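Repro:
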Amino acid sequence: MSKEQKGIIAIGIAVLLTILFVVCASAQNYSFEHWTSRQVKESAIFGGKTRTLYDISAPWTTSNVHAQIMGTNKAAVSVYPTDHEGGKACLLTIEQVEFSVMGVPVHAIASGSIFLGETIAPSNMKEACDPMVVLNMNYAYNKRPAVLYFDYDAQIEQSNVISQANVSKRVKHYEGRDGASVTLLLQRRWEDEDGRIHATRIATASARFYKSSAGWVGDYALPLRYGDIRKQPNFQDHESLNHHGFMARNSRGKMVVIEEHDYDPDAQPTHLILLFSAGCQPAYSGHVGNCFKVDNVRLI
């Protein structure tokens, strides 16, 4: 091998190492290794049981919530730690919660989710009826990733029945399909003089899983689509601007709806919404029994 050939190979190796260094330096890895738990003693009116609520370390938070309603305490748990590859992962479930209120049996459908941000607790009566009010989607982020990677294990029942109950005596059923979901929105936000939060959508990524996987699926790749996704193939209605009604806390400490106005692939990002959920139905609805395990989330 000539000196010239050796020199070309050396340059190639140097370029490759540089590329690998840049990619690794720009990658964002999110861990689920650290959990804490807290005990909530529910009020006698709800049965008086002690429930364990599980929390992930920041910047993640869960839909597990402690509600204080008219001086009483109630807990809802649908997210749990689970084992994976010698560490911890997230187990998101859809559960039918049954309890008594002054001796009267009532029901609620709880769909587990995790997201980047803050769950406001304890919640009050109004907030308990509107889950979005306690989900503060206010995660600051200024990068422009290309792909969202994660490991998942989906156990989805092949059923066309959706259950719905919001602390009611009866569980309603209607026709539909439920599946685990992933939602990513990259935004540029600003706040006006009235405290309203506005946003431009920079990039979108979403997936729904309507079938069970054969165990864990590693390194699932979900590309981010920059710009106006309405003009791109495979656009879905749930990817539309303002579809989810996500909220964030403004500079005055008030929770307000994030109002998306347009698309701009070249805007500088300020915030990221990233949500994993066991279901894709509206609040207090879903197919009971479905579960979604998530681990090793990475943005590259």
